[in-house]
Amino acid sequence: MNRWPIYCLLLLLAAACHREATVTVHFDPVDGSIASAKVVDSSAECRDVADCALEPVDCCDCKSGGKQRAVAKSKPHDAAARQAKCKDQMCAMMISNDPSCAQHAACVGGRCVLN
Which of 7-16, 35-44, 45-54 is predicted least confidently? Predict the structure, then answer.
């Protein structure tokens, strides 16, 4: 029995398993006439808005006079360290008027930002 086709198939499968970094290029019109390119590489923290979340900047959130920021859900957040840092801090019982509290998390250029 000729095993040459089997060896070729195994070699082809082994070559197909090699993984390269993924780079995606998006073309979005800036002013309706000219297109600009955004490059999003595989190390991006987000691909769409579902990959982002809102988090208080310090100990107090927007419902308690604080500020918020956009963070990637995939990045580890140490809730225990934040709780230890904030255990002796009291927050005001007021809705914050900081501009960040009126914004939502968005994924722009592979990064989570407030929008």
Answer: 35-44
The DSSP letter of residue 115 is -
In a domain, 37, yes or no: no
Which helix (H) or strand (E) covers residue 13, if one does? helix 4-16
- The answer to the question of residue 105 being in a domain is yes
Three-state helix/strand/coil letters over 76-101: CCCHHHHHHHHCCCCCCCCCCCCHHH
Contact residues for 41 (Cβ-Cβ < 8 A; gap 6+)? 21, 22, 23, 24, 110
Cα 71 to Cα 28: distance, rounded to the nearest angstrom? 24
pTM (2 d.p.): 0.58
* The pLDDT of residue 111: 93
